[in-house]
Amino acid sequence: MNEMEKESLRARLPAWLREHGYPLTRSFRCLSPAHQDRHPSMRYNPKNQTVHCFSCGASFDVFDLVGMEEGLDAFPQRLAAVRRRYGGGAPAPSCREKGKQEAPDLTGFARAGAAARREEDYAWFAARGLRRETVERFGLFVQDGRAVLPVWRQGRCVSWCARALAEDGSPR
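Below the sequence we write its predicted structure tokens.
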């Protein structure tokens, strides 16, 4: 993994925080499992893409948080999990490869998922404030207990992310 890719993935921390309902601009309760925080003492630091607890001193980046969430200890596993969630499942190309490597074409996957969409899938998205037109426009669908959100670029699906439908689903 090159440093450019690592920094690009580390910059996904705000997305992780938003997905989990944590604010980017004010304090929240510490995410360290070893700290029983009763008062908001952790803040997001955009300069180094970490969250830091001013009470217990713990700091985490997106690799740490995804690793804790998925029960992963080794960095290569955490890296793979962050890539899967935020990088479309494939490592970002290095500077030398950028001109040679084209983004994967996942359009068939996205269109097949959207074609298999059921009425109850629309209901799940509607409960989160998304209208039927929005679901259809962006090709959102449900597959294997997860809401799938394709990432489109110039009419092609080049990546996707997914979220477990059930509260106890793993990873969330």
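Confidence is low (pLDDT under 50) at residues 88-101.
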